[in-house]
């Protein structure tokens, strides 16, 4: 899956002040990412506030995104949740035209066993018409996909081509890299650990802060690919503080505020139960934006 090498971005979903989807801003964001060199885009990952969108809205966002991208970069669709039967139906009904892969988050809240996680992804893989990317984010889902389960899925289903890992566990990353099939990709799911994960052999990052700083994120992954760790460390350090501020009051609240300040989107509206970042965080973000440029 060469399409998944380097830097991808989990696009936010811009909203108008009345809470409706702001398609002009979404189009502007997509163009910004592509013009700044982002390698691929993820439409409606969890950063896209997908859990708060209706089925009709998700369909409209996917259709708008594929038309706006128009084949300029690879495109991944986020389809995941904790109701396996519903996710299987969504994957079966998904219009794959213009998309290259599906990213599917591990079931949240239910806290399934490893066998339950395996059976969940087995059911999705059985109907998926596109390559499938696992997404392990135990800090949000409440359960971890173990390295053994990841490797089992990778070995048994050719449809499963990668995992987005946001466990923060480097022993786990190392086990996956040691035991995985040769063509199976490990992708960072946390911006701050992109550099060390890629140094171990990860393929790149699906980024949040890349919404606002796509050139820095893509440059970081390119430096690591080229073996230029001196410049990679500079970019890594540049992004640390602003990335932390993106998450201090919840994702994507912080990065939406940055995008509004940059003029990429018109509002930093987020749907409840999220709320925009407070004044103290705004001031901290403004200060850091002035530092990194």
From TrEMBL:
Residues the record lists as binding pyruvate? 47, 206
The reactions it catalyses are: L-aspartate 4-semialdehyde + pyruvate = (2S,4S)-4-hydroxy-2,3,4,5-tetrahydrodipicolinate + H2O + H(+)
Q: What EC number(s) does the entry state? A: 4.3.3.7
Q: Which InterPro entries match?
A: Aldolase_TIM, DapA, DapA-like
Q: What class of enzyme is it?
A: lyase
Q: In which pathway does it act?
A: Amino-acid biosynthesis; L-lysine biosynthesis via DAP pathway; (S)-tetrahydrodipicolinate from L-aspartate: step 3/4
Principal subcellular localization: cytoplasm
Check the record and name the Pfam families matching this protein.
DHDPS
The record, for SUPFAM superfamilies, names: Aldolase
Active site per UniProt: 135, 164
Q: Where in the cell is it found?
A: Cytoplasm
Task: Give the record's keywords alphabetically.
Answer: Amino-acid biosynthesis, Cytoplasm, Diaminopimelate biosynthesis, Lyase, Lysine biosynthesis, Schiff base
UniProt keyword annotation of Amino-acid biosynthesis present: yes
Q: Which CDD domains match?
A: DHDPS
Question: Does Membrane appear among the keywords?
Answer: no
Site entry: Part of a proton relay during catalysis:
46, 109
Gene Ontology MF term list: 4-hydroxy-tetrahydrodipicolinate synthase activity
In the record, the note on similarity to other proteins reads: Belongs to the DapA family.
Function of the molecule: Catalyzes the condensation of (S)-aspartate-beta-semialdehyde [(S)-ASA] and pyruvate to 4-hydroxy-tetrahydrodipicolinate (HTPA).
Q: How does it assemble?
A: Homotetramer; dimer of dimers.
Record-linked NCBIfam families: dapA
| Name of this protein | 4-hydroxy-tetrahydrodipicolinate synthase
Corresponding gene? dapA
């Amino acid at each position: 899956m060469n399409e998944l090498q380097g830097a991808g971005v989990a696009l936010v979903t811009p909203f108008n002040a009345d809470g409706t989807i702001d398609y002009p801003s979404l189009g502007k964001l997509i163009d910004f990412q592509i013009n700044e060199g982002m390698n691929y885009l993820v439409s409606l990952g969890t950063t896209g506030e997908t859990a708060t969108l209706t089925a009709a809205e998700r369909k409209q966002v996917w259709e708008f995104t594929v038309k706006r991208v128009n084949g300029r970069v690879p495109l991944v669709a986020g389809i995941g949740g904790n109701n396996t039967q519903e996710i299987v139906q969504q994957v079966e009904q998904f219009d794959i035209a213009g998309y290259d892969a599906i990213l599917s988050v591990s079931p949240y809240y239910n806290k399934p066993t490893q066998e339950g996680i395996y059976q969940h992804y087995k059911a999705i893989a059985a109907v998926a018409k596109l390559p499938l990317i696992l997404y392990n984010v135990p800090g949000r889902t409440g359960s971890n996909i173990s390295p053994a389960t990841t490797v089992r899925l990778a070995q048994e289903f050719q449809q499963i081509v990668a995992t987005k890992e946001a466990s923060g566990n480097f022993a786990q990353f190392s086990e996956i890299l040691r035991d995985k099939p040769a063509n199976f990709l490990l992708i960072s799911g946390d911006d701050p650990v992109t550099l060390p994960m890629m140094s171990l052999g990860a393929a790149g990052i699906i980024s949040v802060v890349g919404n606002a700083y796509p050139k820095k994120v893509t440059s970081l992954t390119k430096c690591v690919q080229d073996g230029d760790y001196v410049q990679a460390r500079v970019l890594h350090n540049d992004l640390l503080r602003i990335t932390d501020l993106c998450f201090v009051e919840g994702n994507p609240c912080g990065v939406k505020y940055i995008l509004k300040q940059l003029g990429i989107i018109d509002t930093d509206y987020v749907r409840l139960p999220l709320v925009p970042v407070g004044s103290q965080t705004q001031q901290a973000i403004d200060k850091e934006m002035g530092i990194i440029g």
